[in-house]
Amino acid sequence: MVYRGKPSAACERCRQRRLRCDHRQPSCTQCLRAEVNCLGYRNLLDLNFQDQSNDVIRNYKVPARKRRLGPTRIVKSQTLVSNGVSEDPTDHGPLCSDKATATIPTAALAYPVEEIARSYLYVNYMTGGPRCSYMSYLLPLMEDSQNSAINAAVNAVALAALSNIRLSPNTMLKAQKEYTTALSKTNLALKDPVLCKTDGILAAVVMLGIFEVMTCTDGSFIDRWVHHMEGATRLIEIRGSEQLSRQEGLDLFTQLRGQVSLSRIYQERYSSPVFNKLTERIQRDQNPNDRVLDQLATIVTRLTDFCANVTRRHIVGPTEIIRTALKLDAELVSLMIGVPPSWRYTIVNIPVFEGKPITKAVWGDSYHIYQSIPASSMWNNYRSIRIIIQELIIDTLKDLEDSENDDIGLSQRSSLACQASQTALQLVDDICASVPYNLDIGIEDDTRLKDSALKATHTSTCHGVDVVSTLSPFQASGAGGLTIMWPLLVAANSGFACDDLRKWIANCLDKIGHSMGINQALAMSKLIQDGVRSRAFLTPEYRSHPYKL
């Protein structure tokens, strides 16, 4: 037995952040001030002494020369950790930030890279916590020993993200190996009429699609990503309404429904009739608090079919196009006015110095605080859809300039165009205002902004009622980056973003790519810098000319 010194009596959060903990029950003051759950305190008696018998035996068996070299190697490893950068691509150092490295013990260097990668994915995408998880359905599916395909797919995504963060080719090789294994097992399961309907196989297909998002290096990844989405769509259609009876199946359907709808709008394709029937089925049994998601999906489905009809010239009358677009837009606004409290967000104004905001980390003079990542994602999808509607209205009005159609007078055209432009500008600003919550850009370290966030009056989006959030507002996660990418691309390429805003959005996407290991964000940033329209991102013409990052 060996004495290792007096252990800290502070709670876990205070130990990690090196804060002065007052040990109050049931929560310390630091956790109360940060509005997070205090995880309690350790039993110091159990920590005073630890059995090192195995360590002594192992050290005795090591040759003397290696024991002499040992301390030097450890010092080097500790130096690398303090800098947050690894010389060796296979080094098992920290994930990405200097803050995290300050509390990582040297023993963490011995963990296999696979365990570190899975832990990263677990913390950033799967766990609950105050901001809710994005893919919590993975946890029970991974515990099932029969779901070997989903475990391989999760390993592939986790290793790919970690490889991108660390710039480690060796880790990427392991990720590609896991991807090949997952793809093989998934294809084998798809041939089985029973296995192909299981939640584990559908989740594996979803993760294979996310792997393409993580490993994007050129324009050809779009083909593979669309292929995975179409495969997931087909699986959902085969599975039928029975999948909605399980929480995992319901979560999978809800997540995929939004992605498939948005991709079909951009590809100008009709919606899936099976998806529409399943959405109707959910609305009858859904929790009233979450029913807004299904109501939003129903309107988006109608918009999807409307855009497809306009493209195929099944609807050609400018008056009918504009009237239908305005009707859909009004329904969207009406729906979101009455969202339940758990889906609302608050607006925090930024202090201004000499007429300018005190930070460049936020675009504009305010930012949003949401109550969960799903809430932020829902609002940004809503804004993206409305931006598409405003674009459709403006494009239709432009086509009338050279026509002899007098159904809409000149003054009315000007009024409609001005209204659509102002609406789109506000929607673009709202998407950008959600970035600090999703990415934690520069807010946490700015004490002036932190104080303003605590003291500011929060203005609710619904009926002016104050909604005070009970969670710590800035806790970045990979799920936040994954869900904000497409709305940012829509905002940048909508035609309503100035050059400075486009550069700001490109920088946000670069941050997502480099700090969260999501390469598709880097591809999107390059699209913005090259001036490529966002709709072209999904067209065969663009995909036929792949680019390199």
UniProtKB/TrEMBL annotation:
Top-level lineage group: Eukaryota
Molecular function in Gene Ontology: DNA-binding transcription factor activity, RNA polymerase II-specific; zinc ion binding
CDD domains: GAL4
Entry keyword annotation includes Chaperone: no
Boundaries of every Zn(2)-C6 fungal-type domain copy: 10-38
Xref: Gene3D superfamilies: Zn(2)-C6 fungal-type DNA-binding domain (4.10.240.10)
Pfam family for this entry, one: Fungal_trans_2
InterPro entries: DHMBA_Reg_Transcription_Factor, Fun_TF, Zn2-C6_fun-type_DNA-bd_sf, Zn2Cys6_DnaBD
Iron listed as a keyword: no
Keywords: Nucleus
Annotated PROSITE patterns: ZN2_CY6_FUNGAL_1, ZN2_CY6_FUNGAL_2
Protein name per Swiss-Prot or TrEMBL: Fungal specific transcription factor domain-containing protein
